[in-house]
Amino acid sequence: MSVIKVAILGFGTVGEGVYKTIQSHEDELTGVLGKKVEVTAVLIKNKQKTRDINEGVLITTDFAEILNLPQLDVVVEAIVGKEPTFTFLKQAIQRGCHIITANKEMFAYYGSELLELAENHNVSVGYEATVAGGIPVIQTLRQLLNVNRVRQVQGILNGTSNFILTEMREGKQSFAAALRLAQEKGYAEVDPTNDVEGFDAFYKTMILSRIAFGEEPKWHDVERKGITTITSELIEVTEKLGLRFKHIASISRIGYQINASVRPVLVGKFHPFYHVEGVENAVNVQSDIVGSITLQGPGAGMFPTASAVIEDLVFVCQNQPPNKNYNKTTAACEQKEKGNGKGLWFLQGLVKNYLSPSLTWVEQTSEDTAIIQATQKELEQLISQKKASGYFQIIGEYKILSNNKEANFAVL
């Protein structure tokens, strides 16, 4: 029986998980591919560290040794940072290898270039593990885009931020205390900036935009806000209203323009993300035929991410076209220009007794907070005029009791 030779770059949580899964699911991989899958090399940083790797596997700190192997079919990259990973993967493609990556930052920057290079060399690129860990969102989008026109993609794409928000609400903890707990459990890095300021989710959003719409917005036009301004007091007030804070990435097409944001929002009880807690991730896709689909599952960890890599291994070994569905779509969302459509917002830090004819007052929720209907531009003017200190959009259905009559508001 012929053999598929695989090299793994990096042997941290993800790399080790991929290695173990290839060993434990050897029969399943052989059954699907008709060939045995064998790890032939592992790239590491420190040769002195003890690792549970079979004899006969090349363990090296020099990528050139891996490139010079007599047979090399697939390179799995599980390292952080843009370089040297981008260079390694370019060299692997030029050698004629399929590549698989779990590196969302590198792929957000260089994914288009790698896909084009792979197409020129007739090899495939797998990148399911770059977004939402064990949730097969990229495979789902590929399948949907055979006929469906995707209108919008929303997601909780960072498990660390979701864990912190859950702990703040359930444990009545401050942001700092919840962050410390996330670090103790290994969910957050010593420097958590990428997670809590929304950079990690931003990179994933750009990758999803390319899949859903074949292009991405200009990065500087994307609103990116983290969760560091959310306080336990805010969480307590909004919880009484039946709302929960979630850090949500959103992409939609308006005419020929792609709009994207990564920011904390408030979701109502009937929104699919309301019960997504802890380190879980979730992605909701809205398309013209099937309607709304929500995928939920673990967004990180050794085996959830390894699962995505292994599915990509099958994908690339079947030599799927690397740019399949990576083209511009014509789907359009019937919405007003960004910033001009009225939405439902939770407003904080209100000047006492402030009224404005352009705002629709929905409910006064406390002395200095309220729920209003307005455009984002109107809210930005309020902030600039120092009439309020902050705002958060409400998505999903929100119910109030006004003048003894129940009123419903539904916002996508």
Describe it for me?
With 412 residues, the protein is of the alpha/beta class. Helix content is 33%, strand content 28%. The strands form two sheets. Strands 7, 8, 9, 10, 11, 12, 13, 14, 15, 16 and 17 form an eleven-stranded mixed sheet that branches. The protein has a six-stranded parallel sheet with strand order 3-2-1-4-5-6, with helices on both faces. β11 and β12 (291-298) form a beta hairpin. The longest helix has 17 residues, at 104-120. The chain starts with a strand and ends with a strand.
Q: Bin the strand percentage.
A: 25-35%
Helix/strand/pairing category: alpha/beta
Number of DSSP-assigned strands? 17
Element order: H for helix, E for strand: EHHEEHEHEHEHEHHHHEHEEEEHEEEHEE
Report the major sheet: 11 strands, mixed
Estimate the mean pLDDT confidence.
Answer: 88
Straight-line distance between termini: 53 Å
Cα-atom radius of gyration: 23 Å
Principal-axes geometry comes out as elongated
Number of helices: 13
Which percent bin holds the helix content?
Answer: 25-40%
List low-confidence stretches.
Answer: 330-336, 403-407
